[in-house]
Amino acid sequence: MQGQAVDRGPPSADIEVQNLSFHPAGTPPEAPLLTDVSLKVPAKQMGLVYGRSGAGKTTLLQLIAGLTQPTTGRIAVIEHAVTSSERLARIGLVFQFPERHFLAATLQQELAFAWPQDMVSLQQLSSRAGVVLDALGLDHIPLDTPLRQLSDGYKRRCALACALWCRPSVLLLDEPLAGLDWQSRADIASVLGKLKQECTVLVVSHDLRELEPLIDVAWEMEAGGKLKSVQWPPAQ
Ligand SMILES: Nc1ncnc2c1ncn2[C@@H]1O[C@H](COP(=O)(O)OP(=O)(O)OP(=O)(O)O)[C@@H](O)[C@H]1O
């Protein structure tokens, strides 16, 4: 990836989860989705949660992002000099296969959803676009290119651009390499390495190859949504 560092935005933050349990209504009492989950990813590090399909990894990201309320436990995204409402706006969440959920026809229109133009001046918008698109290697793509004409790897970069638009301190990524060819996987892994210089990143994945060198701390999610801390890098 060409590009410069993503931004000189707010300081990045620790992600801290303490004794989190999630037991949605309608699920059997003996089978919580998440059980006493605790983790901490220090600022500007990348954390990984891996584990089998259906273990509860995506659910954990949704709870950290505030999309769902935990049954018990505490979630903190700790940074300096921001209010709690600002903090909520500083989490970028990218779902699995985000390109399937684009709302607009072009990158420019999709970015406008991420940062409605009436909130900022045109000058701010175009200067922010320059920084984000350059960081993601999208600077050579005309903003009015139809998203459907882009390769899967470039669509994935576009989804990351939308998540970065509001200068998040924390990025939560669900299977960021899923469904990509080897070249795109390598390219996106390289992008993520760069994003880590600016944001704290938590990735959930069961697909580790390209991500392995980027990971600082890792946990395995076991059956019953229990999290086990693992040595990283793993012993050979
Ligand atoms: N609000 C909810 N109520 C009931 N069941 C739920 C709720 N949210 C998630 N689930 C179920 O919890 C399980 C865990 O789902 P989740 O998507 O978090 O797992 P995952 O580890 O991310 O799996 P994958 O790797 O396949 O994406 C699934 O069986 C899902 O259907």
From TrEMBL:
Pfam families: ABC_tran. Residues 15-232 form the ABC transporter domain. One of its GO terms (cellular component) is chloroplast envelope. Keywords: ATP-binding, Hydrolase, Nucleotide-binding, Transport. GO terms for molecular function: ATP binding; ATP hydrolysis activity; ATPase-coupled transmembrane transporter activity. PANTHER family: ABC TRANSPORTER I FAMILY MEMBER 11, CHLOROPLASTIC, HEAVY METAL TRANSPORTER. This is P-loop containing nucleoside triphosphate hydrolase protein. It comes from Coccomyxa subellipsoidea (strain C-169).
